[in-house]
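Ticket #4471: structure export looks truncated?
Reporter: QA, pipeline team
Priority: medium

Steps to reproduce: submit the single chain below to the structure queue and open the exported record.
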Amino acid sequence: MAKIVQFGKECVAELRKVVWPTREEVISSVKVVVISTAIIAALLGFLDAALMAGVNLVF
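Actual output as written to the record:
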């Protein structure tokens, strides 16, 4: 039981060392992820449509 308590105390001590991002940093990161995801989705959609058109021409 003592090891579990010590583990909990060590976890809390490590979490106090963490430098948490500010709200602005989180919002900025989310914007980058959303925009990147949208761009990649559009590119993959275009590639899929182009490949399907090529397959339809062959068959």
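Status: closed, not a bug. The export was complete when the record was re-opened. Leaving a note from the reviewer for reference: The CA atoms of residues 2 and 8 lie 10 Å apart.
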